[in-house]
Amino acid sequence: MTSRTIIITGASDGIGAAAARRLRGQGENVVIVGRNPRRTNAIADELGAPRHLADFTELAQVRRLAAELREAYPRIDVLANNAGQNFRRERTGDGFEKTLQVNHLAPFLLTTLLLDTLLASKATLVQTSSEASRIFGRLDLDDLGNERRWTADKAYGDAKLANILFTRELHRRYHDQGLNAVSFHPGNVATSMGSDTSSPTRFLWQTWLGRRFLAAPEVGGRTLAHYIDGTPGQTWQSGAYYVVDRVPKKTNPQIEDAVLAQELWERSASLVA
Length: 273
Known about the structure:
Blueprint: E1 5-9, H1 14-25, E2 29-34, H2 37-47, E3 51-53, H3 59-72, E4 78-81, H4 98-113, H5 115-120, E5 124-128, H6 132-135, H7 152-174, E6 180-185, H8 202-206, H9 208-211, H10 217-229, E7 241-243, H11 258-272
Parallel strand pairs: 1-2, 1-4, 2-3, 4-5, 5-6, 6-7
Helix pairs in contact: 1-10, 3-4, 4-7, 4-11, 7-11
């Protein structure tokens, strides 16, 4: 059996690293993408895997990363957009609210820059989202950066809602050309989330008491690997959003708004052009 080329962003620690270990153990060609050189090199060396560095707070680095990936991997079987974080209120050098850029605009840009390769490979796109999309998310296309009413939780919830809408629109546009796309919530997992945020939820991720209520990264990594390993149409349905491994009974109503999904795509493309 020929191993697949699987690119995982945010793979230097947390659920990305856990999924990479699991998939590499199955003989897959896993490509590690991370921001921190020390941690990225450590996991890549451990697994004997190729690695690429990119800081999603700089879109120029995302463009460089896409060029590197296109050159190095003429076939990409899976792109797992897993990198993400909840930040304090800050504007990037590109002029965007930081949480929006890292969680949505950067993976949107990376995916669209790799689109020709993904389509030629009949690839799968796996997007790590969050139930914060349901609890806190309410997208306003005229205020994506939440200039009018920013909170850390709303910024993160909006960005993760954008992940789901982007994945659904990717399915609508390209599924008939062989591309499959799925988004999911990995559960509440003990990762580095909350290390640079003003959100009250940082208590969960950044205190020993809070982390007692969170699952180990290996649990979230197993969930990410479930979607990477799964067969579209059987294990999961392309275009759908899942909570861990089940279609949620309740979602943010905006997830079902096809017009919003199309307009978000067009607005995002314009912003990163």
